Amino acid sequence: MYKIKIDTTNRYRKTVELVNVIGSEEMQLAAVTGDIDIVATIRDILEDKGITIENIGEFESNPGPGSFTGLKIGSSIANVLNWALGRKSIKELTFPDYGREPNISPRKK
């Protein structure tokens, strides 16, 4: 089974990984890190590896703690894809663990 792992704990340094899961072992097939578009990166990785989205058994996001906005983005993408592809029911979806109350401030330049 293939799995997409999304880490958005740092809002401006996100990671998308494609892993092959065999039993309890995970083998990384591809990874992209940076200030990236998560959905476009998933598409690009799948196209590059010749894998369709239907072949992904699970979309997993790092629950945190981390950036409030980043965690919302990662969990939203993973939850929508898991639900839309029938991988998880509404009751099985995951929510971020912010680790603290949100402290939302403008991006520093």
UniProtKB/TrEMBL annotation:
Domain of life: Bacteria
UniProt keywords, alphabetically: Hydrolase, Protease
Gene3D superfamilies membership: 3.30.420.40
Domain Gcp-like: 38-88
Entry keyword Protease: yes
Pfam families: TsaD
GO BP annotation list: proteolysis
A GO MF term: peptidase activity
This protein's record includes keyword Protease: yes
Protein name per UniProt: Peptidase M22, glycoprotease
